[in-house]
Amino acid sequence: MVNQSYPRVEINLQYFKENVEAAVKRCAEYGIKVSGVIKGTTGIPECAKMFQEGGVFGIASSRLEQIEDAKNYGVDLPMLLLRVPMHSEVDEVVRLCDMSLNSEVSTLELLDRAAAKQGKIHKVIIMADLGDLREGYWDKDEMVQVACHVENELSNLHLAGVGTNLGCYGSIEATADKLDELVEIAERIEAEIGRELEIISGGGTTSFPRVLLGDMPKRINHLRMGEGIILARDLDVFFGLDMSFMHQDTYTLKAEVIEVKDKPSHPVGKISIDAFGHTPEYVDRGIRKRALLGIGKVDYGSIDEIFPKDKGVEVIGASSDHTILDIEDAEREFKPGDIVSFGINYASLVYVTNCRNVQIVFV
Ligand SMILES: *Cc1c(COP(=O)(O)O)cnc(C)c1O
C-alpha cells in the first residue's frame, strides 16, 4: 500500500460525540429517539461508535456493507436500513438489520420469507410519500391496506410503524402540517389493527427544525439523523437556524501544495474544452499568484463544495487530480509542501470519506 499523508480528512471524534449528545438531548425533550445515520460519512465504524457513545437509539444507513462494518466494529445497537430493500438483498437485510423502511408489498413478502428462513422477526416501517416524491406510498388507502397485510398475514414481520422522508428529491420542507399528515395516517392504521404503533418516524435532518423551533407534532417519536449531527451545517446555511450549540468543524479536509507560480488568469491559446468536456468562463484578471494542490475532483466532487479556511484564498478550478487556488490576496505565503485546510459540506463529505486516495485521520 502507498503510504501517503495527504490528501487527508481529519475527523474530531470528540466533537462528533458532543454533537450526537446535543442532538439526542434536544430530541429527548420531545420524546423523540434518534437513529444515527452513518451513510454521509461512508459508514466509518469509528463514527458509528461515536453515535453509540453519544447515546443514539440506533444506527441507520442506506447501505448494508456499512451496517455490517459497524456491527463488526462492536457497535451493538438496533440497525435500520434506510433505502427500501432490493429484492436481491432481502436475505442480507434480515441477517444484518433489525428493521427496514419499506414501500413495496412484493418486497415485504420476500422479507417475511427471508425472516422465516432465518428464524427471525424483522421489523418494518412503512413509508408514506407526502410530496417529496422519492420513496413511499402516494396512495394512502393502499398504504393502510399494506400495513394491515403485514400485521395480519406476514407473521415473520413486525409492523413497527410508519415513516416519511422530506427534503431529499422534491425539496419539500418538513413543516408541522406535513408531519401531521403522517400522524393521521398512523392513526388510521392503528384504528384498523387495534393497537398503537411504536414508531412514527418523522424524517431526517430536515425535520430537526421542528424540534429546535418547538412545533413538532406530539406523536412523532423518531428521527433518522446524519448531516445535522455530523456537519451541523445545512440547517444553518439553508434554513438560517442557530446551530452554534454544535461543532461545525468536526471534519477538516487537508491537501498539499505542489506548485506555486505567477501565471495569467486567462488561458493562453485557442480555447476548446477542459478535462471534463466543458468550456468554463475564464475571467482575465491579469497575472495572479496561484497554488496547485495534490487533490482533485475525484476526491471531493465539485470545487463549489469545499471551503478554504485561509482568508483571501479562492478555489478557481480543478481537474480529476489537481486543484488550482488563486492566492494573490492570501494572508500568508504558500510554498510547495505547505498544507491548505478546507471546510466541507454534505456533498463533499460523501466523496472525501469514500475515496481511497484520501486518508482518514482521527484527531
Ligand atoms: C439519508 C436518509 C436520512 C438521513 O439524512 P440526513 O440528511 O443525513 O439526516 C434519513 N432517512 C432516509 C430515508 C435517508 O435516506
Low-confidence parts: none
- State the end-to-end distance: 22 Å
Q: How many β-strand runs?
A: 16
User: What's the Cα radius of gyration?
Assistant: 23 Å
So how many helices? 12
Descriptive overview:
With 363 residues, this protein is α/β, with parallel strands linked by helices. The protein is 30% helix and 23% strand. The protein contains twelve helices and 16 strands. The protein has helices spanning 13-28, 45-53, 64-72, 90-96, 105-117, 140-153, 176-193, 208-212, 227-230, 234-237, 297-300, 346-352; strands spanning 8-11, 33-37, 58-61, 79-81, 99-102, 122-128, 157-164, 199-201, 222-225, 251-264, 287-293, 306-308, 314-318, 323-326, 339-344, 359-362. The strands form two sheets. Strands 1, 10, 11, 12, 13, 14, 15 and 16 form an eight-stranded mixed β-sheet that branches. It starts with 7 loop residues before the first strand and ends with a strand. Pyridoxal-5'-phosphate is lined by residues 37, 39-40, 62, 82, 101, 165, 204-205, 224-228.
